[in-house]
Amino acid sequence: MSPAARRHAPCPIPVRARSLVWDLGSGVWDLGSGSCTFVNVVAEALVWRTVKNPRPRAQPYAFLCRLRKRLTCLFPWNLALLQATHNGRSDCSKALWPAYSTSRHSLGIYFAVSTTCRYHVPSELGNTKALRPAIEQAVAQVVLKQPFMRVGITGEDSKQPNFVHVAVIDLSAQIRWLEPIEVASADAMLEKQLAVQLGTRWPDLDTRPPWKVTAVPVNARDGHLTALDIVYTFHHAIGDGTSSAIFHKQLLEALSKPAPVPSLSSAGLLTLSEPAVLPPPQEELIKFSISWPFFLRTLWKAFGPDFLKAKPNPVPWTGNHVNLANSFQTNVCLFTLPAATSSALLAAARANATTLTPLYHALALLSFARRLPATTAPKFVHGSSISARRLVDPAVLDTSSQMAVLVTSLIHPDTAAMTSQFRARHGSDLDSLVWQAASAIATSFHDKIASLPRDDVTGLLKWVGDWHAYLRQADGKPHDWTWEVSNLGALKAVGDNGWGITRAVFAQSALMSGPAMTLNLAGVVGGEISGTMTCRRRL
Q1: With 90 as the cut, is the pLDDT of residue 287 above it?
Q2: Which terminus of the chain has a smaller tally of CB atoms within 10 A, N or C?
């Protein structure tokens, strides 16, 4: 091969990664029985540089205001989810995302987000008795830094939910300790724990903050403590995926450098005399601009009569239709790529001018295409969540240290042609096809990020006045996507005084509507990558 050809030749995918994806055995998911196997896809955190936003176009605000008035009979425009005050109520402040999240929780569509980190424990804290007070104090330190961890929610079943001040948080109720488990059984236990936590409604929302910490000591065969798994699970109204990474980052800092918490009693009661001052909502932090064509397309898609809309050809496979009457259950499958494999994938992605997130999508597409027949699934529709934190002025909110809900999403290019090629090709030809698909997906990422904050659907969601009614419209219809990828990124691995993080696992509830399944990724800097797949019992 000539030097020029060698420069442009696709970099081979590491054998372990290839075997994870292209082993065509029992499949990613048994569509009949619902039995779960490891997800045969790989990826790595998405890291994009901040791009300069183009000049916003003229916005149809006057027309929107008139439209809002005319549609009041259909949508009573109550979008306030408000900042907590001394009396436990709130003063008016529009908040888009919490109203969306509380409605999904209320309807039983989506319950929680969770990130688990495995902590290396200093030798002097090598038993559970010594660990308990250290963890409780460190969690209290984080709570005092994070306003969203100090509020409850009222009116979740209404059009106007509210954040409320929680004056006393019982950390003994918020933090749960499980019995020690051997490292060989830890993954199976974690899958079960996540399935339960992500499939359970939050109780007593008006008096308890909707988050919990589960601590699981991990022992060697001889019973010696080797690590501590800490599971942080929370209601999506009080944070996005990045918020969970911030929690673990600040927990590691608090464990490394413990500080006294005078407001924490010996009984684990954390007293909060002052109400939380919450960050502004996404719609206030980010100035979205909407063009006329985008606005009209979105309005037509949401409210136009189905019989006048063009039908997709071919129809993508997105599993069974949405049925909100079904009982809610989250199934969780966990896989881990060791550090060496993760590093090889990173190098291969860089050599092919992409990142591991587009590669993850491409491998997922290959995996599903080879497992489902063309008659059932002629193509798929898939998308990604994207952090919107890069769009926030750091002078207004330090998004690197504050929990908030700052996200958007994108749909990736049509997969019909690529799906057919994945089914037709074999052997080494698949390598070049995988990189071709990854490149197309990477381009869609670049284009989307370059366009923000212009023409993004989150800039229009504030016009939905009744989220319950809006979300119920999905009942009986196909899911929007086959899968969605949410990528948490790589967490800092090393703390001080013997503390460190050796593993991160990101997961979220299966959705009754929206994507049929979620593929979630997280890693540690220089270490392994873990992924989860969550979906309902029967797709």
Answers
A1: yes
A2: N
